[in-house]
Amino acid sequence: MLQHSKEPSFRESVDLMFNRAVALMKLPAGLEEKIRVCNATYTVRFGVRLRGQIHTFTGYRSVHSEHMEPVKGGIRYSLGVNQDEVEALAALMTYKCALVDAPFGGSKGGLCIDPREYEEHELELITRRFAYELAKRDLIHPSQNVPAPDMGTGEREMAWIADQYARMNTTDINARACVTGKPINAGGIQGRVEATGRGVQYALQEFFRHPEDVAKTGLSGGLRGKRIIVQGLGNVGYHAAKFLSEEDGALITGIIERDGALVDEKGLNVEAVRSWIATHGGVKGYGDGTYVEQGNKVLESACDILIPAALEGVINMGNADRIKAPLIIEAANGPVTAGGDDILRDKGVVIIPDMYANAGGVTVSYFEWVKNLSHIRFGRMGRRQEEARHQLIVEELERLSKDKELGWTLSPDFKTKYLRGADELELVRSGLDDTMRVAYQAMREVWHARDDVQDLRTAAYLVSIGKVAASYRAKGL
Ligand code: NAD
Q: 305 lies in which domain range?
């Protein structure tokens, strides 16, 4: 049933979805409001001298909930950044961290800037100054507030932020834990760059392990051969599309970017499209498939799975009734508005919600933060010992086979795989896969167990609000 006469803002959308879920819960009086509201938003305006004049920039860091500290959430560089947006994103971080058991409160930051308009050294000056403004108020701090990459930022910006914090806190032995998503040589962790896209892949793999859930979409079978349309071939969209096509046999039949879309029912080569965008700045002119100038119309094309992985609000009251995909996985934050969500739910479209679908990033950020605080890479102590023990078993099996003339031989492929101890990347993937599976199972349990829960998003909110409420109660609130 349509509940909205006009399109709500991003923050209103998040609150409406929260309210929908919380109405199904019995929380102590007033706790619902305490959880919902954003604790604080800091706005900063600062000047940087560039190209012979002072330029003033506006940035935000919003702290939604401090029921666990540090609080965690990315920093976004985009001209669209505003207070409503960072507060919505900070709230989503609270629910996301609770859902995947990452021990953080929710935060988010943003800088109103189009990073493509600046040279690298200019971006460094701007980023360092922004980091300085936030760090001096403990809005960047290993135990208080730990940013990460988001739209328009990546490893490079995180390395500048980490260095800026270290320069301001020269005796802090945990300085590297002040931000995640850093390059390996600056204290990062293997597998962080692709973590969010990898998480989207693991989320879909887990969804397709449950035929009962798949049946709700009218689809059947596994990911192989499924036609996928992805919007945004940035960090998240690129990695998700790459892994799903290269490893799971799905077909990327549409790629929507800023300047239009590419469609090809035979499947597009994600790697080739990505390098085309890198050299030409957009998808236009790419050799294979058909170019569609009005990219957003491709959101409405027939496919099996739609992956909005660019920005918020792209599926809304204006186009939701024309969406043909039976399954949407929200790789971006807030790609479906509350109004759009109502329409899609009425149509029976299954939505794997953002707070779960893109939680791979914060999950691996959590691993990176733990690595920084423990000052040792995962796997360094145990890897060779694990290999030695496996070697013992292999030698014993081979000895038995020889002594008893059993004629057993272990295949070389098995031996290579079995004898290799897990390195950091394998451990990160294992931790991420486990996190995505466990969180999905918690959501689906609620989805199937309760008649008043019609969708995975409400189920996700119920699970995460329950955890946030429990931690407030434990604090005596
Ligand atoms: P990104 O900047 O790397 O990529 C965004 C991509 O979307 C770019 O390729 C850009 O050209 C494209 N794009 C921008 N506007 C578009 C439009 N109107 N139509 C089509 N394409 C458009 O950003 P990202 O880090 O991949 O983040 C994308 C989304 O995922 C955001 O909502 C972000 O909050 C969310 N997210 C990111 C992470 C992360 O680890 N980076 C983690 C969780 C959630």
A: 218-348
